[in-house]
Design brief:
With 855 residues, the protein is of the alpha/beta class. Among the domains are: 3-110, no CATH class; 116-139 and 189-297, Nucleic acid-binding proteins (OB fold (Dihydrolipoamide Acetyltransferase, E2P)), CATH 2.40.50.140; 395-577, P-loop containing nucleotide triphosphate hydrolases (Rossmann fold); 607-767, Rossmann fold (3-Layer(aba) Sandwich), CATH 3.40.50. The chain is 38% helix and 16% strand. It is built from 29 helices and 23 strands. The protein has a seven-stranded parallel sheet with strand order 13-14-12-15-16-11-17, with helices on both faces. Strands 18-23-22-19-21-20 form a six-stranded parallel sheet, sandwiched between helices. It is globular, with a radius of gyration of 34 Å. The two termini are 59 Å apart.
């Protein structure tokens, strides 16, 4: 025996004799690793064994005595395999003492023992005279005794038999580096081959399993000998079936006449006869991993086959899943009627039935939503525990301000205003999300919140995503807080015009300097701007309110940066993108939510039509008619410049080329303007000013007009390539028209005629309710459009859960709220493991409380 293995054997024996107290070596077994690794490599010990020893002993001290015993027995077995010797068993272990898949199987193989499946049961059709085939069944799960997740799951996948460095590099492309990665690498779909039928009862199109005897095997060359077809005829006594495989000659060499086999696949038809093409095949006397069961199908990469990966997954899952401790407390698991985690992991990879698969997916999906809920609840709890300045105003004063507005507040606006007043007076920082459809009057709520703070002489900041929108907010705030109100003797101006400032990228440097100075000394009470508010070295004298418009355009870090310029300021974030209820409960669960679901009186619904590309001239005619009446129009394109325009194809239309064509050929008697994201800020501002002053009649644009801009005289929104947009985007674009008293139209033209029936476009024509459209958009396109850059601070990589499953979300939220109310810091003994897993899910340290807007 090599010296390094001999030393390791002695240490392990001593440690076992001491009862696994981690004192066989001074300071713990991990102290031997630096010297042992060097000696082992110098003696040519295999890299697999070296990695197993270092992985297991490095975390040995953190394990329970039972887990330590399992760990050392695994190493003990591997030493015997490596040295080709037989040693007496270590003391204090039961019959199932071996730990590592590779150590267990490699030791057996070295000694000439063939591993056998742990759990095998028969499955046969009662009508089938052939002997029953052996089918892999999920092992019985026993609740593990470990306190924490086994450290060996951090071991490299190279510890698996047959997985070397080349395979490891390939699997890395699938993000599979450790045994733990494999355990949570879920199938992308399943093939149900549980329907076992005799050949004479097969039907075209079925996915079935057939047990039969090989009657003949024929390999036939095709393509001038460059490929081969394997043709096999099988017979089960009830009939014969022809089975073919394309260019897989090894199958023909493996199958012999008279061999019983299990075939699983789809029944096809050729020349009037039923056949099977490229089915999965296994010998009858072998465990069925690829046939006669619900077979998992995993995502692959180059040089990896489904059968090979499925075999590796089976090794890992069936051994390690039963050894995974369940982090959910029993009380929550029982209340939510969930499988335990080991059973869920086993069943999601190799399900015994569709019912068990559904239960497994439900459990794993619950975990994802539950972790998400705990994270946002903890963040909300942390924020609510902070102190903030209180701001109150007499009812009479606020009523005078409201009476002086040029319009009456809707019931929804009054309700939201009550929420905001309550937050400002609570003594804790407001953290409220205000969502309201396009034109529902969110800006007025923001202005009244600023007014409440301005009455006490403190500062507010309003962050907008674009210069255009920032300038629009600036004009609105001047009207609402200074100019108009100053003319009313009963309610003098809340702010003077020079106490409101605009700071954008195009602001001259000299003006920026003055603004910075006035913010620092407190002369400016309300600053409105874009990213310049964050990027410039701005110091506030007393910032107490931060308002973020179109909040999904900003990352959590950007909001936190602006908020950090004050002392726990109040935060009001606004969006015109209606957020589905399920997202409001999860992704935005840390924010208090106010919904403005009522439109101001007199606001007309925009008439929406989906047109075929050949009907484009109808759209142009409608626009000409509106222009003759003094109205204006938008024509929006998905691209700035053409991309992939080919002959006879209506694809890739770009705003730049189309602007030239429209001006020359379609609207020569009117003035057109061009707006897109590559233009300089002053160029954009010039075009928007001309459009606002009605000197430009048609604005040809990209989606830069999507957010917030207000032009009451615009009555037509024509969207080209409408199939490229999500419902939320289309709804935002539609909201740019119909803001005045005149009837407005939204015309949607997809790129090809067959896209006219596109689900999103049909939904736009059916309803103008933004919340209905938001729910459909979430179902069709996922949460990306709603998350924006918020996902930089929130987990959005849900693998099992769907953010459209409101019932599951409410169940997880209810359990999370109950747990959080009883043990917010997860310090109770039964919640210790959950606390560890939660930290791993959100990141190390205290990242869970700093990923959001908290700074």
């Amino acid at each position: 025996m090599k010296s390094s293995l001999q030393k390791l054997q002695k240490i392990l024996k001593l440690e076992a004799d001491r009862g696994y107290d981690n004192r066989a070596v001074l300071g713990g077994l991990e102290k031997i690793l630096p010297g042992w690794e060097a000696e082992a490599r110098s003696e040519g010990i295999t890299e697999n064994l070296t990695q197993i020893v270092t992985t297991h002993l490095r975390d040995y001290g953190r394990l329970s005595p039972t887990s330590r015993a399992e760990t050392l027995n695994g190493l003990w077995q591997r030493i015997q395999g490596e040295a080709d010797i037989s040693l007496p068993p270590l003391p204090g272990l039961g019959p199932e003492g071996d730990l590592s898949l590779k150590t267990n199987e490699a030791a057996r193989e070295t000694r000439g023992v063939t591993p056998k499946p742990e759990h095998v049961s028969g499955r046969a059709d009662s009508r089938e005279p052939s002997p029953a085939s052996q089918t892999v069944q999920t092992p019985t799960v026993k609740t593990p005794s470990q306190v924490g997740t086994p450290a060996a799951l951090n071991a490299s996948i190279t510890v698996l038999p047959g997985v070397g460095s080349r395979h490891a590099q390939t699997l890395k492309r699938l993000h599979l580096s450790t045994l733990g990665d494999m355990l949570y690498y879920f199938p992308r779909r399943y093939d149900d081959y549980t329907q076992l039928k005799p050949i004479n009862r097969l039907f075209f199109g079925e996915e079935v399993t057939v047990i039969a005897m090989v009657q003949s095997v024929n390999l036939r060359p095709i393509r001038h000998g460059q490929a081969q077809i394997v043709e096999v005829v099988v017979n089960d006594g009830s009939g014969a079936l022809r089975v073919t495989w394309f260019n897989q000659p090894w199958i023909g060499k493996r199958l012999q006449n008279g061999t019983p086999v299990v075939l699983s696949g789809k029944i096809d038809q050729y020349l009037g006869r039923l056949v099977m093409n490229n089915p999965e095949v296994e010998p009858l006397d072998q465990q069925n991993l690829h046939t006669n069961r619900i077979v998992p199908v995993y995502s692959l990469t180059e040089n990896i086959t489904q059968r090979w990966l499925r075999k590796q997954m089976y090794q890992v899952v069936t051994y390690w899943a039963p050894r995974i401790p369940d982090h959910l407390p029993d009380s929550i698991r029982k209340a939510a009627n969930l499988l335990d985690l080991p059973a869920a992991l086993l069943q999601v990879h190799f399900p015994d039935s569709m019912e068990k698969l559904r239960a497994a997916r439900q459990r794993l999906a619950f975990d994802e939503i539950f972790f998400l809920q705990l994270g946002v609840l903890r963040q909300k709890h942390t924020w609510q525990n902070r102190k903030a300045r209180t701001f109150t105003v007499p009812n009479e004063w606020l009523e005078r301000q409201i009476d002086c507005l040029p319009f009456s507040l809707t019931a929804a606006q009054k309700r939201v205003l009550t929420d905001v007043r309550s937050d400002l007076a609570s003594g804790h920082p407001m953290n409220r999300l205000l969502q309201g459809d396009v034109g529902s009057g969110k800006t007025v709520i923001a202005a009244l919140a600023v007014a409440v703070l301005a009455r006490q002489g403190v500062q507010s900041a309003l962050l907008a995503p674009t210069s255009i929108l920032a300038d629009q907010h600036y004009q609105n705030m001047l009207n609402l807080l200074s100019t108009d109100l100053s003319q009313v003797e009963a309610a003098p101006a809340v702010l003077n015009p020079d106490e409101i400032a605009l700071l954008i990228g195009a602001t001259p440097e000299a003006d920026k300097k003055v603004i910075r100075e006035k913010l620092a000394n407190g002369d400016i009470k309300l600053i409105i701007g874009t990213h310049a508010l964050i990027e410039d070295p701005i110091i506030f004298a007393d910032l107490q309110l931060v308002i973020v418009d179109e909040q999904h355009r900003f990352g959590v870090e950007q909001r936190a940066t602006l908020r950090s310029k004050g002392d726990n300021p109040h935060l009001l974030v606004m969006t015109a993108t209606p957020i589905p209820r399920s997202l409001a409960l999860t992704i935005y669960g840390d924010l208090d939510l106010s919904v403005m679901d009522e439109m101001p009186p007199g606001r007309q619904a925009v008439e929406t039509h989906v047109l075929f590309p050949r009907e484009r001239e109808r759209a142009y005619s409608l626009i000409r008619g509106q222009l003759k009446e003094g109205r204006q129009a938008f024509i929006v394109y998905p691209l700035i410049e053409e991309n992939g325009l080919e002959e006879n194809q209506e694809v890739g239309r770009g705003a730049v080329e189309e602007y030239t064509r429209l001006q020359k050929e379609v609207f020569p008697d009117y003035r057109l303007g061009l707006l897109h994201g590559r233009m300089k800020a002053d160029e954009k501002e010039t075009v928007m000013t001309l459009f606002r002053n009605r000197e430009v009649h048609v604005l040809v644009s990209t989606t830069v007009v999507e957010v917030g801009v207000d032009f009451p005289n615009a009555t037509v929104m024509l969207v080209e390539g409408a199939n490229r947009f999500g419902l939320s985007q289309l709804h935002q674009l539609r909201g740019r028209v119909g803001r005045g008293q005149d009837k407005a139209y939204c015309l949607l033209i997809p790129e090809t005629p067959d896209l006219v029936e596109n689900e999103r476009l049909a939904a736009m024509a059916e309803t103008t309710d933004g919340f209905v459209l938001a729910e459909r958009d979430l179902e069709q396109r996922g949460p990306g459009d709603f998350l924006g850059t918020r996902q930089s601070g929130y987990r959005s990589d849900l693998r099992m859960a769907s953010l459209t499953d409101v019932r599951l979300i409410e169940k997880a939220r209810q359990q999370a709220q109950g747990l959080f109310a009883a043990d917010p810091d997860l310090t109770l003994p039964e919640n210790q493991l959950l606390s560890q897993v939660l930290q791993n899910y959100w990141g190390s340290g205290n990242e869970i409380t700093t990923k959001g807007d908290i700074s």
